[in-house]
Amino acid sequence: MTTSISDPEFEQTLTLRQSFEVLYAFLEQFNSRGTQETDVLASWLELLQDGGTADPAQLDDFVKSARAVLARGT
Per its UniProt entry, which superkingdom is the organism in (predicted)? Predict the structure, then answer.
């Protein structure tokens, strides 16, 4: 199943700190696969009308990063 921005999980409220930590975790895992230009990443994260992203794997990775940060309880 492909993650969609309209999934209920995206309705969670995060603190700014948690949001920053999710962003950091996401970028850390992204960079662990090698170097890519950030404009490439931005194009992959473009939201589509169906609630998905141009590269569905990136949205899935973002959700995994968010779950990991939230599981730490920060």
Answer: Bacteria
